[in-house]
Amino acid sequence: MSAQGSTDLTHYHLAGPIAARFLGVSVVALAVLVFVATAVVGLAGLDFGWLLLAAVVGLVAVLSFGWWLRTKAYVVRATPQGYSVRLVRGAGVREARWSDVAEVATTTAHGSPCLILRLKDGGTTTIPVAILAIDREEFVNEVKARLSASVRAAGGGGRRRG
To answer: What is the pTM of this model?
Structure first.
């Protein structure tokens, strides 16, 4: 499932290929750990059980990281009150209330489609939708729906652009 949660709380997770890149980096780190542990054990004349211990600890760490990426890591967390963004370098304002959003726009930044949330105080939040495990149009529509619900609840009007 691409977005998890009820209408009150929704987590938008990493797309599979992006999570796989993170996991690949951790596997490379495990290989480096085993290489360094092998050198240390060999040069220090230690028992090779220490090498096995390092490999097992590293493998457990990689598997735990994979589990976290698959089940707990999210890019955007949306509630009826607002949103928060994680795991995005250069996102801008990482957390805001829907009532603080002045405009929603789509654009392309660095060759990647993005959703821009322009805030009333002049700040912006940039979310590259290609890294989300949800169709980009569906994500944009869900964000606009949350913003509209917030505006209706507050009894005011707001500008939204697609």
So the answer is: 0.79
Contact between 85 and 95 under an 8 Å Cβ cutoff? The reply is yes
What are the extents of the domains in the chain? 15-71, 76-154
Question: HEC states along 97-147?
Answer: EHHHEEEEEEEEECCEEEEEEEECCCCEEEEEHHHECCCHHHHHHHHHHHH
- DSSP β-bridge partners for residue 119: 101
Domain 76-154, classified CATH 3.30.70.270, yes or no: no
pLDDT tens string 27-75: 999 999 999 999 999 999 999 999 999 999 999 999 999 999 999 999 9
Q: Can you tell me the distance from the alpha carbon of 86 to that of 75, in angstroms, rounded to the nearest whole number? A: 5
* Helix or strand (DSSP H, E) at 95: strand 95-97
- How far, in Å, CA of 53 to CA of 30, rounded? 12
